[in-house]
Specification:
Blueprint (H helix, E strand, L loop, with lengths): L9 E6 L8 E2 L6 E2 L5 E6 L7 E3 L1 H8 L2
Antiparallel strand pairs: 1-4, 2-3, 4-5
The structure holds zinc ion.
Length: 65
């Protein structure tokens, strides 16, 4: 339910598959991002504690409209 436009300025980092050592929950679809899956980490510049891990597809869909 996180809306990228509501997060303000964010820093987006791509985590390579070999660096993804554990499972995460994607806030967009609420499904698991399995360990070993390349994905994005989205860090709000104003609130770095609120960083979230997103599926590539989910982030791309949310930011390309
Ligand atoms: Zn997702």
């Amino acid at each position: 339910m996180d809306d990228p436009e509501r997060l303000g300025e964010v820093e987006v980092r791509f985590i390579q598959s070999y660096l993804a050592g554990k499972d995460y929950i994607c806030p967009n679809c609420n499904r698991t991002i399995a360990a070993g899956t390349g994905h994005y980490v989205v860090v709000p510049v104003e609130a770095p504690d609120l960083r979230r891990h997103w599926h590539r597809g989910c982030w791309d869909r949310c930011t390309k409209r």
